[in-house]
Structure formats: structure tokens, C-alpha cells
């Protein structure tokens, strides 16, 4: 296990950054390009460990993929050219790869198996296996296919109507991908608004999809067509530097070319509600995705309550939002966030345990946490539990702590943000 000891940034932070490509879009760009007919060129691809799992999965399915850093060329030959993988597909730690490819593998006319690392093998797969089974999918696995490893007896599925019982873009995407490959129409009713990158990319890759409120209808037997794509910067990665600038004195940071999709910009809304000095400048769209520049300065934050429909739009940013709350005057309540318990680790427990060890006044609730501020953070150790977002939260905490903070298992940050520590060094004065 690797670790790093970080010192406080006594002079604050300053500078301009372009964060790595969006993780969600990077995954999906490979999936659609791998299913497509023709050659797709992808720029600013996130070359983190999770997204590389999706590339390797499609290589196992017989797709020729070239990668040169953040530039990827996918030589798609269409759905019918995909081949049964000789070996079990390794999803690693990637929940997105596991959930979305379950929709694909269920609907392809061959047998395949897949497994994950110990962390992913504890995360629930029944939330996607259940509705896919309603379409006729034959999936077997551990504990009645609740957990990886899974085996897919792939076949032509039948379109049906499914009412989702969880707010999950991964489950929604798996069902839309399966529906695209199935016989007849598939109708999916979302339980709530979740990130819509799959829907946007379907349009870009020539897939017909109709949306009416919470109702999504996709006709079956569709063949994606190749498309060139540039991936915007990841707002979830940018969030760590936005919060860092807001809580550290004498700081000013600008993030350029970052995705501003309204189903993902909850961290901007949250910081604005807390009184952060934050400015957003919309730029030109990249494909269908809105992109722009975000500037944050040192701010006097105030405690707020975050709940309801906002939560799915910042679910990945809650660890760093909790850190911001330790530096806000008053009490912050985070509610309706049970989904945090089934991430790379139980993020409610991980956030509360780590921030409390650094001196924060924070307690866990059944669906979130309560943070009382403003508190000075002490030196200490942050246990990442193999979770990239917990590790980065600890790194930002070190900026304002009164002494050094040690991050254990720092390499897990490579899952979503290779080069994170280089960027941190760049903006520390």
C-alpha cells in the first residue's frame, strides 16, 4: 500500500487547470464506438484505471482499439462482428463498466463471464440484473446474481416496460443499451433525474431515443454508427479544486474546459448556496455537452441542507462537499444519500471516520451526515479504503490542516485522476 504525506498550503492556492476527461463520458464513448460500424476517434479520453477496463473489455470482444495517452481510435465493425470472449472479462474496480456492460453482454448472442476486484465484488449487481431479467436476460452468479462474478448466456432480448426502483444512471444506461439491441421497443421510467450522458451520446452515434418527462423509449435492433468525440473535463474531478479554493485563504483557481451538464453540476449549485465566491462562464458545446470555465476564490461559507433531487447531481462530490462543510459557519445536513453506501466503499462511513479523525464535528445518519462548522482540522492519517474520492478529499484537507496529513493507498486516485498530485503541486503557492 502506497502513502504520501502532505503539508498545509500556508500561502493558499492559485492557478488555472484543465482537469482530465469526464469519466462517465469516457466509458460510454468506448461502449458506443465499440458497438458502432466504422472508425471513431476519441480525444481527451480519461486514461484512468476504470476507463481502461472498458477498453480492455471491448478488446476481449474482438474490437481493435488503439490508444496513445488520451487519444483513442476505435475500429468498430458493428454489433454482429463482436466475438465471444475466450477469457473472463476483468471489470477491476469499475462499477460503470460492470453495470453498463451487463446490459450489452446480456443481449449479445454468445456466452461470456465477468468478475471484479474484491471491492467491486461487494457492490450490488441485482439492481441491474433484475430488470434485465424482465427482458429475458439469463444471468447467473454469486448469491442469485446479486454480486460478481457473473455469467451471461447472451441472447436476443425482448423489449418491455420497466419502472426503475433506484435513481441510477448506470442502471438506466444498462437498460437502454440492452433495449437498443433487443427486439421491439423498450420503455424505461426513471425514478428521478440522473446524469444523461448515455442519452446524449446515443444521439451522436445515430441511435433513436424518445424522451417524454421520466419516460424513455428506445426501439430495438439499432446499429450505432461511428462518431468522432472530444470528452469534456470532468466536473467531479474539478470539484476537489473548486472546494480547495473556496476553503483555503488567499486562493483563486480557474478550471477550464470543464463539463457543465445540468445533470452533473450539483457541486456548483451547492457551493453557490453556501455562499462561495464562484463564477461560471459558459463556452461552446462539445458535441451535445455544455462546457465552460469555473472560477472560485476564497470564501466565507455557511452551512446548508442538501437533499432531494439535488443529491443525484452531486452524489460523487459529497465527500468533498462534506469537507467544505467543516469550514462553513453553522450546520450542514446531507440527506437522501443512501447511494453513498454502495460506492467503492461505504462513503458515509469513510467520510465521517476520516474527517472526525482530523478534528471535524461530523456524525453519520442513515442517509447522509450532519456537519457542524467551522472547525480547525488537525494533522492525521486519511484511510482511502481504495476509494479515489476519499483519497482526494484527504489531500484537499491537508491544504488547510494545521499539520501534515498522510494519505494511505494514494495510488487509488489513479482510478479517476492520473496526475492529481502534479496538479495539486502546480496550484499550491
Features:
single chain, 429 residues, alpha/beta, UDP-n-acetylglucosamine1-carboxyvinyl-transferase, Chain, 4-stranded mixed beta sheet, 13 helices
General description of the model:
With 429 residues, the protein is an alpha/beta fold. The protein has 2 domains: 3-21 and 232-427, Enolpyruvate transferase domain (UDP-n-acetylglucosamine1-carboxyvinyl-transferase, Chain, Alpha-beta prism); 23-217, Enolpyruvate transferase domain (UDP-n-acetylglucosamine1-carboxyvinyl-transferase, Chain), CATH 3.65.10. Helices cover 31% and strands 25% of the residues. The chain contains 13 helices and 23 strands. The chain has a 4-stranded mixed sheet, covered by helices on one side. β22 (380-383), α12 and β23 form a beta-alpha-beta unit. α1 runs parallel beside α2 (49-60). The radius of gyration is 21 Å and the shape is globular. 53% of the residues are buried. The model has no long low-confidence stretch (mean pLDDT 96).
Amino acid at each position: 500500500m502506497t502513502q504520501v504525506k502532505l503539508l498545509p498550503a500556508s500561502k493558499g492556492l492559485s492557478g488555472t487547470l484543465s482537469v482530465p476527461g469526464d469519466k462517465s463520458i469516457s466509458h460510454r464513448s468506448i461502449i458506443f464506438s465499440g458497438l458502432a460500424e466504422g472508425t471513431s476517434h476519441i480525444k481527451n479520453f480519461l486514461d484512468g484505471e476504470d476507463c481502461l477496463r472498458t477498453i480492455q473489455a471491448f478488446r476481449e470482444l474482438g474490437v481493435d482499439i488503439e490508444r496513445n495517452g488520451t487519444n483513442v481510435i476505435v475500429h468498430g465493425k458493428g454489433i454482429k462482428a463482436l466475438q465471444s470472449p475466450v477469457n473472463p472479462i476483468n471489470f477491476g474496480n469499475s462499477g460503470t463498466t460492470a453495470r453498463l456492460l451487463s446490459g450489452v453482454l446480456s443481449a449479445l448472442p454468445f456466452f461470456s463471464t465477468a468478475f471484479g476486484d474484491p471491492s467491486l465484488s461487494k457492490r450490488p449487481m441485482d439492481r441491474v440484473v433484475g430488470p434485465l431479467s424482465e427482458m429475458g436476460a439469463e444471468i447467473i452468479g454469486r448469491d442469485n446474481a446479486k454480486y460478481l462474478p457473473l455469467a451471461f448466456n447472451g441472447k436476443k432480448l425482448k423489449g418491455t416496460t420497466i419502472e426503475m426502483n433506484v435513481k441510477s444512471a448506470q442502471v438506466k444506461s444498462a437498460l437502454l443499451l440492452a433495449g437498443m439491441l433487443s427486439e421491439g421497443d423498450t420503455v424505461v421510467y426513471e425514478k428521478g433525474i440522473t446524469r444523461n450522458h448515455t442519452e446524449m451520446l446515443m444521439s451522436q452515434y445515430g441511435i433513436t431515443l424518445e424522451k417524454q418527462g421520466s419516460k424513455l423509449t428506445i426501439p430495438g435492433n439499432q446499429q450505432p454508427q461511428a462518431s468522432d468525440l472530444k470528452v469534456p473535463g470532468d466536473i467531479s474531478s474539478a470539484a476537489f479544486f473548486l472546494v480547495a479554493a473556496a476553503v483555503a485563504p488567499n486562493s483563486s483557481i480557474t478550471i477550464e474546459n470543464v463539463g457543465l451538464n445540468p445533470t452533473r453540476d450539483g457541486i456548483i449549485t451547492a457551493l453557490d448556496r453556501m455562499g462561495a465566491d464562484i463564477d461560471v462562464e459558459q463556452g461552446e458545446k462539445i458535441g451535445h455537452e455544455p462546457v465552460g470555465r469555473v472560477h472560485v476564490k476564497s470564501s466565507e461559507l455557511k452551512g446548508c441542507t442538501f437533499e432531494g433531487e439535488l443529491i443525484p447531481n452531486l452524489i460523487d462530490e459529497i465527500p468533498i462537499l462534506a469537507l467544505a462543510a467543516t469550514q462553513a459557519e453553522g450546520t450542514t445536513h446531507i440527506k437522501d444519500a443512501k447511494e453513498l453506501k454502495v460506492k467503492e466503499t461505504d462513503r458515509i462511513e469513510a467520510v465521517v471516520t476520516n474527517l472526525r479523525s482530523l478534528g471535524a464535528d461530523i456524525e453519520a445518519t442513515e442517509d447522509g451526515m450532519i456537519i457542524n462548522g467551522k472547525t480547525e482540522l488537525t494533522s492525521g492519517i486519511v484511510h482511502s479504503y481504495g476509494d479515489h474520492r476519499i483519497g482526494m478529499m484527504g489531500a484537499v484537507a491537508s491544504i488547510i490542516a494545521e499539520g501534515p496529513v498522510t494519505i494511505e493507498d494514494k495510488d487509488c486516485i489513479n482510478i479517476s485522476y492520473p496526475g492529481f498530485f502534479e496538479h495539486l503541486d502546480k496550484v499550491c503557492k
